[in-house]
Amino acid sequence: MIIDTHLHVVDPWALDYPWLAGVPALNQAWPYAAYELEARRSGISQTLHMEVDVAAERIEDESHYVRTLADRPGSLICGAIASCRPEDKGFAAYLERQSQDRFIKGFRRVLHVMPDELPTQPLFRENIARLSGSGLTFDLCVLPRQLPHAMALADLAPDVTFILDHCGVPDIKGDERQPWQDSITELARRPNVVAKISGVVAYADPESWIAETLRPWVEHTVQSFGWDRVVWGSDWPVCTLGGGLLAWVAATHALLEGASADEKTKLLSGNAKRIWNL
């Protein structure tokens, strides 16, 4: 069975998503019920909800909303990665509130659409350091050129587990191997960073990718981090831009052909269980 560490639920009647106006293909409701059917068909047994970059004033509302989905009988949702704003003065108080909620497993601040210098700001760095000792993870969603900033954050808080989203967001369609490849190798030298094998179907040509198209990118990530520091994510509904959940799960199994049963289990569920105490 698979633990999906990257589900987005979009409910425009409950929450506000300003960024969706610029992404017409995703600018609609993406309800949990639609995901659940495909997830169960794919062999997904548990999932973590990943924040969807809601309007800043709705961040805590999103966590409450996701909990209502998790509380439904038989729900696959077993925890949430909440949004945060480490660049804000109110982060310390927010962290204190969220740390009391065992449903919250970690945080993410979307960086790949923000100015490159955001994670270098003193307050941002100071607040990331506050995660030390909390047991909460921090997802890094960065572009290849921003990977050095990811390294700096990982070095700042060596006891915090950082999760690199989407294999570092490589340009697969454009076949841009550098600086992505060397930066992934360097980032993987930080033992507190875990790579998430997710999102890559959205960065390939949606009309022509096959499993072998994704192989160099996924294999380099796995080889760099090792089987003990990789997890799997669907990135639903963003994965629908590249064929959908079922296609991504099928491609994943094809890419894992030749791996041992133990290696497959680590990537698909075992590491996630350990990292987030699921």
Strand order of the biggest β-sheet: 1-2-3-4-5-6-7-8
Calculate the terminal CA-CA distance, rounded to whole Å: 14 Å
Rg to the nearest angstrom? Answer: 17 Å
CATH fold title: TIM Barrel
Integer tally of domains: 1
Structural class assignment: alpha/beta
Quick one: biggest sheet?
8 strands, parallel
Q: Based on CA inertia axes, which overall geometry fits?
A: globular
Mean pLDDT: 97
| Proportion of residues in extended strands | 15-25%
CATH architecture: Alpha-Beta Barrel
The low-confidence runs, each spanning 5 or more residues with pLDDT under 50, are none
Quaternary state reads single chain
Number of helices: 9
Structure in words:
The protein has 278 residues and is an alpha/beta fold. It has one domain (2-276): TIM Barrel, CATH 3.20.20.140. 36% of the residues lie in helices and 15% in strands. It is built from 9 helices and 8 strands. It has helices at residues 32-42, 59-70, 91-99, 122-129, 147-156, 180-187, 211-225, 245-255, 261-276; strands spanning 2-7, 44-50, 77-83, 104-110, 137-141, 162-164, 193-197, 230-232. An 8-stranded parallel β-sheet has the order 1-2-3-4-5-6-7-8. β2, α2 and β3 (77-83) form a beta-alpha-beta unit. α1 (32-42) runs parallel beside α8 and α7 crosses α8. The two termini are 14 Å apart.
Give a quick summary of the entry:
The radius of gyration is 17 Å and the shape is globular. Strand 6, helix 6 (180-187) and strand 7 form a beta-alpha-beta unit.
Describe the protein's topology.
Blueprint: E1 2-7, H1 32-42, E2 44-50, H2 59-70, E3 77-83, H3 91-99, E4 104-110, H4 122-129, E5 137-141, H5 147-156, E6 162-164, H6 180-187, E7 193-197, H7 211-225, E8 230-232, H8 245-255, H9 261-276
Parallel strand pairs: 1-2, 2-3, 3-4, 4-5, 5-6, 6-7, 7-8
Helix pairs in contact: 1-8, 5-6, 7-8
